[in-house]
Amino acid sequence: MQARPINSSTGSMPAKAMMPMINGRPDYQLAQALTKVSPQAQTKAKATATDFEAMFLNSMFSQMTSGIKGEGPFGDTPGTGVWRSMLTEQYSKNFARSGGIGISNEVYRTLILQQASRAQPGQGKQP
């Protein structure tokens, strides 16, 4: 299940909005929820979802590189572990910002749906 946010750069619904998609089909539930959540909350939810995916990817990349020893760009020095951890952190952040593996889209969708369900019926977003 991969959901695409309406506007990837801001995470909010533009004035002339396209329908959000999930698995290649219109996601009416997310579209309705976006009308109940403020643009600021949408932007914050998008940033949180991207950060979550970056943390997951960092964990995954750290596990992938934990067994690498010796030659290569890191060599086999005492600082190798620190250098490698900083490098994998940057890899994961850049990977997540460029679209990642789809985790952030699902997290974003879930956060928006939860926030919309908590919104009071007359409270919606302000124009």
Summary, kept brief:
Helix content is 55%, strand content 5%.
What would you say this structure looks like, in words?
The chain is mostly helical. The protein is built from 4 helices and 3 strands. It has a 3-stranded antiparallel beta sheet. The two termini are 31 Å apart.
Q: What is the number of helical segments per DSSP (H or I, 4+ residues)?
A: 4
> Count the strands?
3
For the largest beta-sheet, the strand count, sense and barrel status come to: 3 strands, antiparallel
The overall average pLDDT, rounded, is: 79
Order of helices and strands: EEEHHHH
| Gyration radius over CA | 19 Å
Strand order of the largest sheet: 1-2-3
Question: What would you call the structural class?
Answer: mainly alpha
Shape designation: elongated
Taken as a percent bin, the fraction of beta residues is under 5%
Q: Which spans have pLDDT < 50 for at least 5 consecutive residues?
A: none
Q: Report how far the terminal alpha carbons are from each other.
A: 31 Å
Please outline the helices and strands:
Layout: E1 3-4, E2 21-22, E3 25-26, H1 28-36, H2 39-65, H3 80-97, H4 103-118
Antiparallel strand pairs: 1-2, 2-3
Helix pairs in contact: 1-4, 2-3, 2-4
Structural descriptors:
3-stranded antiparallel sheet, 3 strands, 4 helices, 127 residues
